[in-house]
Amino acid sequence: MSESIFEYAPAPESRSVVDIRPSYGLFIDGAFTEGHGEPFKTIDPATEDTLAEIACADSADVDRAVVAARAAFERVWGPMPGRERAKYLFRIARIIQERARELAVLESVDNGKPIRESRDVDVPLVAAYFFYYAGWADKLEHAGFGADPGPVGVAGQIIPWNFPLLMLAWKIAPALACGNTVVLKPAETTPLTALVFADICRQADLPAGVVNIVTGAGETGRVLAAHPGVDKVAFTGSTEVGKQIARAVAGSRKRLTLELGGKAANIVFEDAPLDQAVEGVVNGIFFNQGQVCCAGSRLLVQESIAEELLERLKARMATLRVGDPLDKNTDVGAINSAAQLAKIRELAQAGEDEGAARWSPACVLPQRGFWFAPTVFTGVAQSHRIAREEIFGPVLSVLTFRTPAEAVEKANNTPYGLSAGVWTDKGSRMLWMAQRLRAGVVWANTFNKFDPASPFGGYKESGFGREGGRHGLEAYLNV
Amino acid sequence: MTVMRDDALSGAELRAFLQGLPGVDQVGAEERAARLGTRSIKASAKAEAIDLAISMVDLTTLEGADTAGKVRALCAKAVRPDPDDSSVPRVAAVCVYPDLVEVAVRALAGSGVGVASVATAFPSGRAPLEARLVDTRAAVAAGAGEIDMVIDRGAFLAGDYLKVFEEIVAVREACGGAHLKVILETGELVTYDNVRRASWLAMRAGADFIKTSTGKVSVAATLPVTLVMLEAVRDFRAVTGRQVGVKPAGGIRTTKDALRYLVLVNETVGPDWLSPRWFRLGASSLLNDLLMQRRKLATGVYSGPDYFTVD
Questions:
Q1: Of A29, A125, A463, B46, whose CB neighbour count within 10 A is largest?
Q2: B38 contacts in A (CB within 8 Å)?
Q3: Active site residue: A13, A117, A188, A259, which one?
Q4: Where would I find the Aldehyde dehydrogenase domain in this sequence (chain A) (predicted)?
């Protein structure tokens, strides 16, 4: 009888669907152009191989992009009837679906996330957001923001590296639907899918200047946010940078939305559907290597089931497959950058030093690239750094509680407030919890679920403004 | 969780126990099963998995029109699934109606392939208990090593758990040394909570295997139902130390389906269940697809269906 462990043979997704050019320019006014900053390289975090050289936009380049966006806003996109704008957005959404495999592979190569996620989560959601906001473009007067809400103007948008294309969609789709034009700066470590998106805009015959992509590092973002020609700044990223942007924008007429960090509590009650709760905890913290602003990085489990839940959680974690992001069976891929890996390591070390118990399943990590094994800390106290600071990695801190009131108190006892998860079979308790949790999203018996129709955003240091849904239109309408 | 002593079990105790089991969230369970369904099993892993799947098949014929000749043909297939290739493993068992057990036993003597028989007024189970027990004893007397019984779904849905429990215990006794597979008919239980309760009920009553379906109801085996049953056998072993097998049956027709079930077993209960001793696939047409894919993998080309025997 076969008792051998059922090892899966490698099942790599083919890289042949992507054609990465040796170098990329900036996308300004409908054309790829040179940048005048010092070019930089983007690498594959799973291998540390260089993928391409990327142009860096200096302040003159950003200025060109803003001027192009302004011209497109005034002459073409702003005056265009909503039903016409919708056609372009629908077209973009369809092209994204057609080029889904290419985008998924490229996203995994540049970001390090498993192809299963880029294929089944990121790219389908990207298309869904464009479809959703395409539908709003000719119905804005029915959105509840007045009889004839107009666009804001030129939006300067700065996005992070954890969901490069999805964050682009969250920013660009509502902005365009409302009649704004955009200058978008992708993250330094993950510019490639945004540059393919630029190509998709051309393929869709989007008028020149409506979407401009300026690549670069933090300095490019600073210049963009501070540019006087920008009417609205939208930023998703770290709380630290968010505060800098808020300071830069303060006192100007610019409008601002920020979607920042989080330290979400995933709260499991003793009457929870246990096996699904374990799945939800795993999905909450190991999805995208935990590099998710709304990751369920604190597990609050009721004392009466803590031991049993942890046992199940560890057994489940032992089945996570860590490795090549392009392997279709990989669950946990590479950390996005050396800098991020160093940050995760530092915080994990702090967890050990402060006396929490660290555990990871046995797993062989590749030699090259940036890797961190799925990790759980037990015996964590509220005062530990790993319970308070955002780790942005596959590291879970486990705390316990005895009563619902204590769960709420602990869950809310954080400077952040982006998301929370509650696991219970009792509907009344679910509602009671949801009313008291100060978090932009409360997931009931699930976690990390996104839908274009649902608003997303934070309380407290997790930022302000909402993206997604009808609420997401407000940031891009002159209301 | 604690399991009470099963002698002197009262209906109220049993009900409290079954209703106290952790619930199953339908959306979560279906999502987990669907996600495991996207696993990509290639090359050497696929070859190993196909052979494992073949060795787990309960080759089944349960038609009113079954004849001794048909059963003998099926038995020949069970022992040597691919006449052109002796490296193909034999299947786990042949599953027939009680009156054909004798034919199967004779045809399979010394082959290592087991003889399973459905009993207890399969598939509805709507006969007096005494008749169901007679049915069972007859199948065992004729040489069946495995009995696939059906539970009284009506009693289960009405909340009369003790009746179902006692009937399983009675059939268990009637089985003597034969292995007992208890068919829950999950398509009629409808909810995953019911599937989990019925699984625990059957295991506590002495089932050696829990089986999803008769194959005679339109919703037969599904991945999420099997997932819930696998979680139940895993938890049952953790509490009692006794390992119980799982058999999805009905609707499993392709190699792709079969591999999905193996992935499910591998990633929820682990390799302890990855053998015909603990996991079976109840199917009739699946075997030929497994053989076809096996040959494709070995030769690189597909053979037509005419190259595999239709039995």
A1: A463
A2: 116, 120, 328
A3: A259
A4: 33-479
ipTM: 0.94
**pLDDT tens sequence across B207-229:** 999 999 999 999 999 999 999 99
A7·B45 Cβ contact <8 A:
yes
Place of tokens 């002495």: B206
Q: Do B25 and A274 touch (CB under 8 A)?
A: no
In chain B, residues with a C-beta closer than 8 Å to the C-beta of A280 are: 28
Q: Would you state the CATH architecture of domain A15-260+459-478?
A: 3-Layer(aba) Sandwich (3.40)
Locate the domains of chain A by residue range: 15-260+459-478, 265-444
The superfamily CATH assigns to domain A265-444 is Aldehyde Dehydrogenase; Chain A, domain 2 (3.40.309.10)
pLDDT above 60 (res A5): no
Question: Domains in chain B, please, with CATH?
Answer: 23-296 (3.20.20.70)
Q: Are A15-260+459-478 and A265-444 equal in CATH topology?
A: no
For residue A139, what are the CA distances in angstroms to A49, A151, A152, A471, B95?
47, 13, 17, 14, 62
What is the DSSP annotation of B39-100? ----HHHHHHHHHHHHHHEEEE---TT--HHHHHHHHHHHH-S-TT-TTSPPPSEEEE-GGG
- Run of H or E including A444: strand A441-444
